[in-house]
Amino acid sequence: MDKQKLMRLIKEARGERSQREFAKLIGTSQATISDWEKGKYVPTLENAEILAQCLGIDLTEFVARAEGRTRSTSFEELLQAIDYADWPQLAQIQRAIAHRMENH
């Protein structure tokens, strides 16, 4: 696993939330979030699943991204990701769809 990519993924999952807010949301401590983001420790499998959900992806995709690999997302996975998306992510999805429709 690429530690730098994992650290970026964790920060991406946290988004604009503070470490404290994000820790409360996922059921861990602020110190743990800090340690993950600094690369001091890696999340447990259970926490990796929660982080993946925060990103709107499954654990397989989370691990693939942390390893620097990519895989295509199926339509069903895309719909599932939308179910897990928060409001800022939904707004980003909406903008991407609008952009795609304007340029198609």
TL;DR?
With about 100 residues, this protein is mainly α. The protein is built from 7 helices and no strands.
Q: What is the 3D shape?
A: globular
Tell me the series of helices and strands, N- to C-terminal: HHHHHHH
pLDDT averaged over residues: 89
N-to-C terminal Cα separation, in Å? 37 Å
Low-pLDDT segments, ≥5 res: none
What's the helix count? 7
Number of separate strands: 0
Classify the secondary structure makeup into a structural class: mainly alpha
Describe the structure.
- The protein has about 100 residues and is mostly helical.
- Helices cover about 70% and strands about 0% of the residues.
- The chain has seven helices and no strands.
- Helix 1 crosses helix 5.
- The longest helix has 16 residues, at about 85-100.
- It starts with a helix and ends with a helix.
- The mean pLDDT is about 90.
Map the helices and strands.
Elements: H1 3-14, H2 19-26, H3 30-38, H4 45-55, H5 59-66, H6 75-84, H7 87-102
Helix pairs in contact: 1-3, 1-4, 1-5, 2-3, 4-5
Descriptive labels:
104 residues
